[in-house]
Structure formats: C-alpha cells, structure tokens
From TrEMBL:
Lineage: Bacteria, Pseudomonadati, Bacteroidota, Bacteroidia, Bacteroidales
Coiled-coil intervals: none
Cited Gene3D superfamilies: Aldolase class I (3.20.20.70)
PROSITE patterns xref list: RADICAL_SAM
Source organism of the structure: Candidatus Amulumruptor caecigallinarius
InterPro entries: Aldolase_TIM, GTPase_Obg, rSAM, rSAM_sf
Protein name: Radical SAM protein
Listed SUPFAM superfamilies: Radical SAM enzymes (SSF102114)
Length: 259
C-alpha cells in the first residue's frame, strides 16, 4: 500500500507547483492519515493505512514548532512565499484549527509579514462556523471541488460523510463572498472496473456552473504529478488542461493551470 506521509508537524520549505516556496504545517498524526475523503489520487495513500499512534499535535506544539522554524529561516535569510496547511489528511478536522490559524497569523506577522498563509482543504468542514471564520483570516483559502456531480465525487474523492453533496458544498463556498480559491484535480482512468473521467464536456460544464455561482477569486486546475494509490489513473496533459482552462476563462473566471 502506498504511504507517503509527512513525519513531522512542520516540514519544508518545499517547492509547490501552485504556491512557490512553501513551509508546510501538518495538523494530523505524523505516522498515519486522518481524512474525510479517501481520494484515489492522494499522494499520502488511502485511509486504510490507519491513523497511526502519535495522535494530533496540540495547539502549543504546533505554535512552538512553527515559531522555531520561522526563527531559523528568518536568521538564515531564507526565501519563503507561503505557510501552507496540508499534510496527512484534512487540516480543518483539528479541534483547535481556528486557534492554530490565529497563532499562525501572529507568528507570520512577527517573522515574515510578507508571506501568505494558505489552507488546502476538501471543504467537508464548512458547516462549522469556527472553521469558516478562521478560513476568512488566511490569504489563500483553497477549497477542493473535483466535480459538481455527486456520483463523480463519490468515485474520485470517496467522502466518508454519507450526507456529502456537491450542492451543499457549493452553497457553503458561496458564503465566502469570493474569498476562496477552488482547486480541481482533472483526471481519468478507472477504479475497481468503473470508468472515471471528470474532463468530459458534461463534467466541465457542471464545474463552470458551480464556479459561476461561487465566484471564487481564482480556480486552480491541475492533474496527477506523483504516484497515486489507484494505479489506473491517467494524467491529463498540459495542452488539455489549457483547453479546459480556456473554456472556464470564457465565463470571466480567473484560472491557474499546473501540470
């Protein structure tokens, strides 16, 4: 089973295709995965590997580790573009997520005031008011929407919430009043003999309709860049991503393509 985990709370900086020089913050265990999605393409592997034994880092542990790293980078004069919450699962699941974001804003302002704060989220915890308010504080509130069709999302992202629906997520994303970036993974292939493709004209049209409702500051479309748990997935070419992006741009939506 593929497991590519981050074995610390703070990691990097690493180069991000979409964000630049990124210092990562992992709010999940450092020896397991905890997520409300079980995506076929997740570089951290499937949820079946388990949550590990170390548990979630505390708010104090996150703040101390982050401050130590920021102090070091500041002393070295190291380049840094962004502090990014990602890691071994869904960061907004952490019970102290809102407080941790508040701590991070304060530390960023002290050591690297020019640096952005990003959160990569799958949009499954937007029913929690404290999570939403914390996301309003970050520079890049990046929320996932891989399809606007429930059947496709259940094939690709495999949410563990039986109540999950694209319609509900779209309505929740609208409440950010544009302070949101939508991230969409484009891919095709199969899983357990079932064909998967969110690049069809029907799928793209449904996504565009959702983007028009949400009115995000930007849409990021990208494709597979690393080994995936499901091996029968196909990377979408840069040229095809650009054609899809052009379709989206014709509706007045800003699009960033990563390939």
């Amino acid at each position: 089973m593929q497991t590519v985990l981050f074995h610390s709370t703070i990691f990097g900086p690493i180069h991000s295709r979409r964000l630049g020089s990124s210092l990562g913050v992992n709010l999940m265990p450092d020896d397991g995965k905890v997520c409300t999605f079980d995506c076929l393409y997740c570089e951290a592997g499937y949820n079946a590997q388990g949550a590990g034994t170390t548990g979630l880092p505390t708010r104090r542990q996150v703040a101390d580790a982050l401050e130590s790293k920021l102090k070091q980078l500041h002393a070295e004069g190291a380049p840094l573009d962004v502090i990014t919450f990602s890691g071994n699962g869904e960061p907004t699941l952490h019970p102290d997520f809102a407080w941790i974001i508040s701590d991070t804003v304060a530390l960023r302002d002290r050591y690297f005031p020019q640096v952005k704060i990003s959160v990569l989220s799958n949009a499954t915890m937007l029913h929690k008011s404290d999570v939403v308010e914390a996301l309003r504080l970050v520079d890049n509130n990046i929320q996932k929407l891989d399809s606007a069709k429930d059947d496709t999302i259940r094939l690709i992202d495999r949410p563990n919430q039986t109540s999950y629906s694209a319609r509900r997520v779209i309505d929740q994303l609208k409440r950010f009043d544009g302070h949101v970036i939508i991230q969409t993974m484009m891919l095709r292939g199969s899983h357990d003999g079932v064909a998967i493709d969110n690049t069809t004209a029907e799928e793209v049209a449904a996504l565009i309709a959702a983007y028009e409702e949400v009115k995000p500051q930007e849409v990021m479309i990208y494709s597979i860049d690393r080994k995936t748990p499901e091996e029968k997935l196909e990377k979408v070419s840069k040229d095809e991503l650009e054609r899809i992006a052009d379709d989206i741009r014709r509706h007045g939506i800003k699009v960033q393509v990563s390939a």
